[in-house]
Write a structure and sequence with these properties.
This protein is 57% helix and 0% strand. The chain has 194 residues and is an all-alpha fold. It has two domains: 19-87; 103-182, no CATH class. The longest helix has 27 residues, at 103-129. It is elongated and about 80 Å long.
């Protein structure tokens, strides 16, 4: 038999008749969450103590559990951690980690492929919509890739006709197989690059 004070794995009483589950208990829950987040912030401190990281993890889990936004102090720490992870090679990669051992390098290379694919699609759509433009530029694969190569040469010196064609085929195949989400285009306020 469950007693009134038995606590479940989620940290809440197992007995639904417990006072915390009353209709007016949302104030109690809000006070509990606020109290716990303050406690985690104090435990985190400046991040140099052994208990810092478990306190941060507890704050993230608590906010996720209650569907709340992270407090400002935790958000700042999580962004710093994400930036560090984005710009560093993982442990064990060493000098032989390869060109894509850093997530930022891999992302930048994938974005080059995506930009080339996007330029080809833009050119093809413009050709379909504008009869005058269609008359100036014949519709075939080679002229499309060479035109895109000329357009991109100012911003992407590696955008040769062959590279544009390879990038186009790569992205097209990834999109067809459902793996195109790796081409996430961040907004202009990308927090990982600041």
């Amino acid at each position: 038999m469950r007693r009134k004070m038995d606590i479940g794995v989620d940290g809440w009483p197992t007995d639904k008749r417990h006072p915390v589950f009353r209709a007016d208990a949302t104030h109690d829950q809000a006070a509990f969450v606020a109290r716990e987040l303050r406690r985690y912030q104090r435990a985190y401190g400046d991040g140099s103590l052994p208990g810092s990281w478990p306190a941060l993890a507890e704050a993230v889990v608590l906010c996720a559990q209650f569907g709340l936004a992270l407090p400002a102090w935790a958000t700042a720490v999580v962004l710093v951690l994400l930036r560090e992870r984005f710009h560093k090679a993982p442990k064990g990669a060493g000098k032989k980690g390869g060109r894509h051992s850093k997530p930022s390098t891999a992302h930048n290379d994938f974005m080059k492929h995506f930009a080339r694919w996007d330029a080809v699609i833009e050119l093809q759509e413009r050709r379909e919509d504008d009869p005058e433009f269609r008359a100036r530029l014949r519709q075939n694969r080679e002229t499309t890739f060479s035109a895109v190569s000329r357009i991109l040469e100012a911003t992407d010196p590696t955008a040769t006709v062959g590279n544009v064609e390879k990038s186009f085929d790569l992205v097209k195949n990834l999109l067809r197989t459902g793996k195109g989400m790796q081409f996430f285009v961040p907004g202009y306020r990308n927090p990982l690059t600041r």
